[in-house]
């Protein structure tokens, strides 16, 4: 049976507290400084066809036009009125969704301290940027007692990459107070079938649902991040490849944020024969665990880090047992069985891999089946002497005196 390779790439979020006011982009003029109101107050409505200021290559499909939909997403094949969300993938709608749920902007009076809230705005601040803002929006049926504010930002990166159609997408969350409309079996803005955030290009390997999607925990997106700023999530689409399809363009996780040095990749679409790349912040070792979905039956580790050799451990008879010593990076190591956890050690602290880098140490996981997997990764940590931080990351690491690194197992 053909095995499924998934390579996981984690970036530490360092997320805590509430999203600040600077999470949202503004300064674009209009009623609320978010640009032009793109629709009149409505339920399940959409804009007319809009022209992108740059063409995007969304997994092999080139798009120049798009529609802004009231229900928290943009679509590329036509307007989308669907109000009850589904976890991706879905087969009939190419879309990017910062918060797909039953948005209702018809109530323009209740609980709105400032005029023109509860609207959807569009700005093109330059020829390389599109910003769509769902500003203080309510939920069906005309409820404003809870309000959500979020943005989708598309940025042309073709000049940087040298490839036409390359772009970044950002999801920015100012506040998330509700998850579900009444018609999606919700009550008081919660319960029922909650919102979904992510993207869908129409195939199982070309879609992704962010952590918390389809659950009440999706409101946690405002407190978490994959780039170190609360409420900001950034993803790259490069050379027709979505995040997760290549080691240089990994899926970035959310922080477990439970006091352990761990990260979680939730609802990763897995299939046979196609790698999905995620990348961990490097310590000197990591525990990998599959909490749901297909199990892991092999691993491929990144060459060229330190001495490029690692020790692989499997959980057997209630303890970690050495399975492969000095395994070389780049080799496909088969376990000979399917497991729900394994350990990698042997990354030298002398390698000084930047713990804030989103592409520090890619790990290729081979799965035994097709489906959606949820994988956690936890660092093995000890304290070492502080490592000077690059100036670029100074604001992310303020107050951090030491880096949590894992103890390297002595080689014999």
Describe this structure in words.
Helices cover 1% and strands 41% of the residues. It has 412 residues and is an all-beta fold. It folds into 2 domains: 185 residues, no CATH class; 205 residues, no CATH class. The strands form 5 sheets. Strands 2, 7, 8, 9, 10, 11 and 14 form a 7-stranded antiparallel beta sheet that branches. A hairpin with a 2-residue loop joins strand 3 and strand 4. The longest helix is centred in the middle third of the chain and has 4 residues. The radius of gyration is 22 Å and the shape is elongated.
List keywords for this structure.
seven-stranded antiparallel sheet; 26 strands; Epithelial_Barrier/Signaling; 412 residues; 2 domains; single chain; PEP-CTERM sorting domain-containing protein; signal; NIDO_dom; elongated; mainly beta; 1 helix; Ice-binding_C; disordered N terminus
Question: Strands, helices and their partners?
Answer:
Blueprint: E1 4-8, E2 36-37, E3 50-58, E4 61-69, E5 73-75, E6 95-100, E7 103-104, E8 119-126, E9 129-139, E10 143-156, H1 158-161, E11 167-176, E12 196-200, E13 207-209, E14 232-237, E15 254-255, E16 262-270, E17 285-292, E18 296-301, E19 309-316, E20 319-328, E21 332-339, E22 341-345, E23 363-367, E24 371-379, E25 382-383, E26 404-405
Antiparallel strand pairs: 1-23, 2-8, 3-4, 4-5, 5-6, 6-12, 7-9, 8-9, 9-10, 10-11, 11-14, 12-13, 15-16, 16-24, 17-22, 17-24, 18-21, 18-23, 19-20, 19-22, 25-26
